[in-house]
Design a protein that fits this description.
The chain is α+β, with helices and mostly antiparallel strands. Helix content is about 25%, strand content about 20%. The chain is flat and about 55 Å long.
């Protein structure tokens, strides 16, 4: 049977097309400390901090380049890999500022409507898409909420598509910000683009108190910073444990962490909202 598929991978040096086993991309964020998404720069010369207009799955969006042009393996990208449409113009920036102003007004309107319907939900943030074709309302709640009548009221006010998204406590902390137990601004709201898995074993391996109030962040979940030094402690570094640094003839030996059964934390998975 004849093979009608391509036999060889095309090679070209054009931006955003395959070059051997790599593809040229730039990394773009849509929120401060948000998740980074890759886009094809085409023929544009883009640098970090450049503001751009890009095509996304939910329409045209406004973002900021945080990773300059680089070549990555195709499997590191989310297909289909979309294009950067253009560098943002002064008109684009003005439109984005107007959307932010409208978001604040929409927040007040939505809070009023929630109170009128007596819904058990807490509004966290409101976001207009760049083309104002949709308004997204992010909220938290203890369980499922029937907000169908609320959506109808909001659609009548804003006369555009309305989407309500229920988020978790970690996403809430990321959106609202605040100060952690260390006295610094929250990692998730300043630079941590994506949540990493954190387990109680990390606290045990670092000889920390297992008191939940001491190892939990303001979101009520295990602190993300438990992950930062986990590799050092897993490596059995005596210096990290208060002893002497190992010499070249005595490499550190990894020691397994004992199982913990008496303390159980209900951990959330990584954010699905792409913040």
């Amino acid at each position: 049977m004849a093979d009608n598929g391509p036999k060889n991978r095309p090679e070209t040096s054009d931006h955003g097309t395959l070059t051997g086993e790599k593809v040229v991309v730039v990394g773009v964020r849509f929120r401060d400390a948000g998740k980074i998404y890759f886009f094809k720069p085409k023929q544009l010369q883009l640098q970090p901090n450049d503001q751009v207009v890009v095509e996304t799955a939910r329409g045209i969006e406004f973002g900021t380049v945080v990773i300059g042009e680089r070549q990555v393996a195709p499997e590191e990208t989310v297909t289909p890999l979309r294009d950067v449409i253009r560098k943002a113009t002064p008109e684009d920036c003005a439109k984005m500022e107007d959307n932010k102003r409208r978001s604040k007004e929409a927040f007040s309107v939505c809070e009023q409507k929630i109170a009128e319907h007596g819904l058990p939900m807490k509004l966290i943030d409101v976001e207009f898409t760049f083309d104002a074709g949709k308004v997204l309302f992010y909220f938290t709640a203890e369980g499922r909420v029937d907000f169908r009548e609320l959506v109808k009221d909001l659609a009548a006010v804003f006369r555009t598509r309305i989407e309500l998204r229920q988020i978790g406590v970690r996403d809430e902390a990321k959106l609202l910000g605040g100060l952690g137990p260390c006295g610094r601004e929250l990692c998730c709201s300043t630079w941590l683009g994506d949540f990493v898995p954190v387990s109680i074993r990390m606290a045990k391996g670092q000889n920390l108190s297992l008191n939940p109030t001491k190892i939990s962040g303001i979101c009520g979940r295990l602190m993300c910073c438990l992950k930062y030094e986990d590799a050092t402690y897993k490596g059995g570094c005596p210096k990290a444990a208060g002893g002497e640094a190992p010499c070249s003839k005595c490499p550190a030996v990894e020691e397994p962490v004992a199982e913990i059964e008496s303390v159980v934390f209900d951990e959330e998975g990584p954010s699905e909202e792409g913040f």
